[in-house]
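Interim report to the steering committee. The following record documents the input for Response regulatory domain-containing protein (106 residues).
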Amino acid sequence: MVKKKVLIVDDEEPIRQLVSNILAKDYTVLVAIDGEEALNMARRQKPDLILMDILMPKVDGFTACYTINQDPATRDIPVVMLTGIDYELNKKLSREIGAQGYITKP
C-alpha cells in the first residue's frame, strides 16, 4: 500500500523534526523550510495534506495557503495551519483563505 504524503512547512528545525518523527511511520513525510519552498513542493509532489506554519521567512503561511488554494494544480490539497500563535483573528483569517484547520503548537 502506498503511504499518503504529508508536507510539513516550518522554519524551525526542531518542529519539523518532531512532527516528521511522529508521522513517519504511517506517512511519507516531505519538509519545506518556508512558504516559497512549500509552493514549489506542493506543485511538484502533490502531497495529500500540508501542515503549514504561519510566521516564516520569504513567503508566510497565510500567503502560501492562499496561493495553494487559488492554484488549480494544488487547490484540492488540504492545508492545516500549525502555529504557536493562538489568536482568534489568525484562526478566522486561516478559514477565510481556505485552511481546513488550525492546530496550536505546544
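Residues 5-104 form a domain with the Rossmann fold fold (CATH 3.40.50.2300). The committee is asked to note this result when reviewing the revised timeline.
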